[in-house]
What does this fold into?
Amino acid sequence: MRKVFVFTLAIAIALSGVWAGGASEAAPVDPSAWPSKPVNIVVTSSAGGDGDYFMRTLSVPLEEELGVPVVITNLAGGNGTIGMDELMNKEPDGYTFYVNNTCALAANQLTGLADYDWSVSDPVAVFAKHSGEMLWVRSDSPYNTVEELIEASKADPGKFTIGVSLGGSVYVASLMLQNAGAELSIVDANDGAERIIALLGGQVDCCIAGYGIGKEYIESGALRPLCTLMANRSAALPDVPTADESGAPGLIINNLFVILAPKGTNPEIIEKFNAAICKVVNENESYRESVYQYSGQEAYALSVDDTIAALEETKNQFMAYSDLV
Amino acid sequence: MFIEGFSAVFGNPMTVVLIFFGVAVGIVFGAIPGLTATMAVVMFLPLTYTMSPIMGIALLIALYIGGTSGGLISAILLNIPGTPSSVATCFDGRPLALKGEAPKALGIGIFYSFIGTIFGVIVMMLLAPIVANIAIMFGPFEYCALAIFSLSLVIMLTGKDMIRGLMAALIGMMLATAGLAPIDSARRFTFGNAQMNSGFQLLAVLIGLYAISEILGAAEDVGKPQAQIYKGKVKIKGLGFSMNEFRSQISNFLYSAAIGTGIGILPGIGGGTAGMLSYTFVKNKSKYPEKFGTGVIDGVVASETSNNACIGGALIPLLTLGIPGDGTTAVLLGALMVHNVAAGPLIFQKNGAVVYAIYAAMIIGSIAMLVIEYAGIRGFIKVLAIPKQFLLPVVMVLCFVGAFGNSNRLFDIYCTVGFGILAFLMRKGGLPFPPVILGFILGPLFESNFRRASQFIAIDPMAWTAHPIAIAFIVITVVLLALNIRKIIKNSKKEEKAV
It folds into this structure.
């Protein structure tokens, strides 16, 4: 009996070892034949989130464009650092890519969660815009612009509370707001949906949360946005100004979703992949429509050079606050 | 809209087939230790992107229901909870199975899963908009007090072995501190390893404690004759229990269902805690608390009713406020958004048909669960006939597959092994596992909300006076603790006299 048990156990362990070992493989890369096998894309946030949605929606027309399957998996955790950790250890085989967002990358470096920036990877393309963080107040709030809120907080320093999530890009946004003159008490109120609830429940006086999370409350009349923190006004809310133009200069959280490749990936492959992404994003009408419905933003993609410029810009913008964190 | 939603589900045979399929797959995921409802939902989410909203969401709801209920099968038959929700089902389900009453334990678990789910759906249908306001009233102060209240239940749950119970709860809370701290994201116990940033996964802790330690324990017994629990044919009469037994459980059912739905409404606590809370409550108000843990049906009723009633509760804040309470509902929220169904205050006006379709899917889903699981009882019980040397290695491989699949990394498998060894030692020292799980879930809930509440106290030292619900929880905790400690002292004096 004992032998049987030990034998079965050994087989089980051996099998799990084989299957674990199968994860690493190196393939010869021929850029002219790319893509000749399925393209793997790892989303560094969880299933059901914005990055996951944009990537999975894009993957359907992208499969047609590339002519090979595009396989999406999720490797979430540590605000994307777990996925980045894998990227840094991955062979640049031209068939594995990672989805992240410009603000998470910059914020992680700023807060010390990561000791690297985007340059540990070879960026492929910015392929979508975040629906945009907005500054929200309850409808009965006396303030109509971010400027009025800043003035009121100056008159009574520390009395007004703003709900954010400490450490992330939303926290950086609140620092930018203070930098623009506001004297608010910054409190942690968990993730976006919880911040909206904290605002509804009267626990905080204003909060920063995504357009997608708060938009239903605009219609129901409970909340209103003072401004968007994106660089440009949202396509769905053209009357809501940007923070930058309405009294808080420099308060810009321009969050873009980006596909990254492991460092050392063949540049020709990157250019080819970028061209395919830009083509789908700019020309596929049904894709453009679903993106607008989901996020209230126009579909958006950047060339390789512009993607690198956008990553570098956000990094520099965030790192300017390194003294305050 | 009501009719539109219901007919969209009932009227379309394809949707009904999908729900039965989803429930069956969910049960398999729930029953296999290591695979969970969350994983089932995550796996099927991309498939629903191309379905109609009602079909897609119906499928995911079916997976959720099946996955939550399926855990009872391995909890009762193997003493390994298939999902965190069914931890408390082991307490009395397993002793029942050891007594040769596995069919009864399964029958009761299945039946009360069913009516627990239905209870949750009814509360959801009747009270969703009102109940959503309760969730808005719960801020950091309230959650912090609720966490203290729930943690104090460890003392009642473990009774005489209070010291060991508290030690176990502390181990759970300590394990939960690893990784990025809430609020300020300070790295704790990460040793510079990026894998440690997200801390230990609940799943790795759960299967390490229950499955791996069970396997190590069995390895110790190698060579000894095995007790044969399963003998010949399985007889199941009707639902597996009598009408008298049903009558005796009516009040237990109502309390457990209310606790489960209530816990479900508050995001982030979950079915596992709900099951243990109900179990503790039912045990404490029972006329024979000393029999709990030896195989009384009351324990199975409490746990299974409560964790399934949690589903209806959890969907209320999900739909009306857009806050997901756990991994599974977070994926459901994503699925709703993908189909342009915006969760929030206007969901009834704008997507009423989808909401009613969800209700209908839950009702059909629970019927499917009842039918499929009852039909399967005979098959499930055969698991007990498989010699351990064949069964447990398979279980172990499945556990590792599950630990890996949870977030696609090997690191979680190493953690699972580590926790298994820890659990083996704990078992030798007589430390119970359920308080570890409670501590692991509630510790972070307490910490993050305590720190959030502290921010408000820093602004205004009297801020806590504006939170009567929080104050009430603290008062109840103190009173219950005092009563319990008095009872424990009295009992130990009695024992001394008896000696």
Summary: Residues 14-26 of chain A have pLDDT under 50 and may be disordered. Chain A touches chain B through 64 residues (CB under 8 Å). The beta strands of chain A are 39-43, 70-74, 96-101, 121-129, 133-138, 161-164, 185-188, 206-210, 223-228, 256-262.
